[in-house]
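Deliverable D5.2: sample structural annotation.
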Amino acid sequence: ACNNKELYQRFLTDLGKDFELSDQGPVSWYLGVSVKQDLTNKCTTLSQEQYVKEVLERFGMTGATPVSTLMEANTHLTSADCPPPHKVDKQFKR
């Protein structure tokens, strides 16, 4: 999005020199993520709901009962919160 239409057109022209472009309107789905844009409130919402449903179906868990998350809301984790690599359970490694 851009407030300056001339700058936006110049950007598209320059980008089009190296890549094939097509205008398909507002994005609603991108790389498996649902995208909803509320331009009035300047808010973009990304959702992986469909992916989660597919994972639950693949593992036979569509009837599972959801539970509350045991972590406080708005908790910000850093790498310092992670266990050292030699202590990570092997089942979580790929």
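Annotation notes: The mean pLDDT is 87. The beta strands are 29-30, 33-38, 43-47.
The annotation will be released with the project's public dataset once the embargo ends.
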